[in-house]
Amino acid sequence: MRKPTIVGVVKKIRAFEPGDLIAAADILEDLESLIVAEQTSFDDSALLSKVLEDFTVLNQRNTTSEGVNWTSFLEGLPGKMPKKPSKSPAVRTSSSRQAPRKTPKLNSEDISVDVEVLSSFLIEAREHLDEIEPRVLSLESQFDAQTVNEIFRSVHTIKGVSGFLNLDQIKTLSHELEFLLDGLRSGNLATSSALVDLLLQGCDVLQKMVQDVAGKASEMSVKKGVGTLRPTFFDLSALMKLFHDFQNVRPAPPQEITELLQNPELIAKFAQEAVETLETVEQCILTMEKTHKTGDYLNEAFRAIHTLKGNAGFFGFGNLESLCMEMESLLDSLRKGQKQIDEQSIQSLLRYLDRLRALVQLSTSPNQAVPFETSDHEPVKVALLDPEANKYSVKKKDIRVDTEKLDSLFDLIGELITAESLVIDSPDLRGLELEGFQKSAAYLSKITRELQNITMSMRMIPLEGLFSKMNRLVRDLGRKFNKEIELEISGAETEMDRNIIEEISDPLVHIIRNAVDHGIEDTAVRLAKGKKPNGKVVLNARYEGNEIWITVSDDGAGLDRARILEVATDRGLISQGAVLNDGEVYKLVFEPGFSTAKEVSEISGRGVGMDVVKKNLEKLRGNIDIHTVINKGTDFVLRIPLTLAIIDGVTLRCGTMLYSLPIGDVVEFQNFDPDKLTSADPHHKVMRLRGEILPVMSLADFFTSSNQVAPDTGDKKVSIILKSQNRKMAVIVDEIVGYKQIVLKALPEFMSHLKGVSGCTIMGNGEVSLIIDVHALFHRFLV
Amino acid sequence: MGKKILCIDDSSTIRMLVKKTLLPLDYEVLEAENGKQGLEMAINNPVDLLLVDVNMPVMNGFECVAAVKALPQYAKVPMVFLTTESSQEKKDQGRQLGVSGWIIKPFEPDGLVKILRMLLP
User: Fold this and answer.
1) Which residue of B has its CA nearest to A103?
2) A695 has which bridge partners?
3) Contact call for B20 and A25, based on CB within 8 A
4) How does pLDDT run across A356-373, given as a tens digit for each residue?
5) ipTM of this complex > 0.90?
6) Is A53 in CB contact (< 8 Å) with chain B?
7) A153: distance to nearest CA of chain B, Å?
8) Span A398-418, pLDDT tens digits
9) Which CATH number fits domain A111-247: 1.20.120.160, 3.40.50.1950, 3.30.70.270, 3.30.300.30?
């Protein structure tokens, strides 16, 4: 502990600024300890007491408002004025409460922290950081003083609290951010993309630091509420340099680039971000091409590439960086109007994109973990961080979960529902009056249903991502075939199981490719036919009952039935003179080996043809329908079951067999009244329902092929009104058994030829129920 | 009976720190999240000293102190800004409101205790 001296105290008092309470307390303490110190003479002591008294009075009063004269007080201090004995030496004898002074800790050292305070800080800091980012982003589009203030306050709070915890790096960085924001607030700085970028980068690093501390905090050992923490040392020099460049003040001392971000996990993250960034840029370029408007899109693309460049440099991917730089300068010259946005420039931008994509993949693939470097490219010492980083997570507060875990959760839910029905419908309980059990069972069912819904929704993502990729595809194909084609997308918000989306991606590409290549005619031909010169492809997704229908429609020539038959016969896919209905004929285009030689070469790059469509859809228990009108166009409808595993179904009995119908296909139930039935001919019966004429089908008759004996249950039959698209029909069954969730199982191989059945399920009592494919039922019965 | 301190700060961590520092020393600590809440609390609970942050949402520290100072019962109650604002301009602004002074964040808990003992002998 340092010993106060009179000279020292006087010095402190002279330097004292009224209002600085910490300094005031310090001076008071010094004075007190001097007064009680043994070596202080009586005279000195009395004088000091007077000084102490005056100082206390002065200090407690507000100086300016009450007009206390500091100047005269300062003049009265020893060393200037002759010694004067004091009248009333009111010596304070309070004991010295000098605290051991903590020296500020260095970054890489352990720091002791109060665990409670730390965790409070972490929660608070995260909340603030979550709020900062969207606010900073909003500044870019519109400056708003209120928003700047809010950001400032958040950063300010983080700075204030981190100081208490000796989190020096966080404090330093938030101080710099605060400085920038203050400049913005006071109007010394104007909002610019560069500034917003810098703020975002700063926030990203801040977030990383907070995360780092949080990670360290979770594993630190705690003694009496105090933990020891060693935060990772972040090299802020590069970022600081940016801050200082911005302010045009003191340059940062040069420092070595940190190895911090050179680990595989971060590289993987970089790769993912890079892919996303490139996707954004692609959208921008395509929009520019389409709308011939540049403005924001060009800026956005520029910014994204700029950021990617920085990141690449940071990770030491020299090739990537220099390629980014080339693209950036092209974008820049476009931005400055030195170059025109024309076909050529768009083309070269897209070429850059493709090369960048390839390079990102190459650089970041795991067997290339060592940063990929060209001979003369130094890693750039600029810690640019992607402003897009964490954007998604910040907004949605999501976590990443291994899809394997999700899948097994999904499987378990299936098992749970089966187990539930095994219990609830257990034959042991049959005939018992169990009121309490029924109630609990209903409660259990409710919970499993909710559980299932949530689990399913976890895997659902909108089709938007997949659909937007098709923009580029159609554009490229159009250029390749020299056709002007417009793609119209609707229903992109439709959500679908992530696994299914992956499976339909290839089929969709092939169908669209086919539509552009074979469907849509050349401009000259179109004009000759009196059509608009520009071809149109419409991509639509919608829910239809228990399925999602993805439709690809073109306004092209339509499928040529005769030609397809000819080709198919040629290639031995069908025998000469085979009789096929329209649907069967059109589906031939999906047969392996149907494609013409030209088409094979077209797609050969991928090693798959249109048959991939059929194969993938079969895997998903999906179907494809083709509707075509000569010279009007073709619709390909991919019908994909909404879920792979669990559906809400009505179970019914017909003869000795159980069947289940997806609830989405059922309109209503009616008591079957044979009197309402009208026979058009022996095979076609119809019934009237509220003025509507519906075709009637007996399920027992339909499935007689499966060789069952239908015991006559008398007149208590039920008709179920089903719908598919805009058609309805009545199906007569013996009895409705129940309505519940059913877990779909695939039919065993030897039964897979069964028509009109999409799978089976196992009931609580062990019986098997066949799940009816309503659409197929309509198709087979009505055609 | 310990002295009552009203701590007005939007950071729950700061409030926690103040509380942790002062509670063992027989001070009673009241908390408010912003100036407005602090003003309401000061009206309803007579306190012996106010620790006020400057940068707060809804009502900032300056506005809050001005409003509290205007209450007759608070004319002589010491008020301290707890702040990271160290610019001369802000200090002057604070001084004109007639506060005892300021404590620049971060502060040592012992420093806070010393100041309170100084202001509330």
Assistant:
1) B108
2) A686
3) no
4) 888 887 777 654 433 333
5) no
6) no
7) 6
8) 677 777 888 888 888 888 888
9) 1.20.120.160
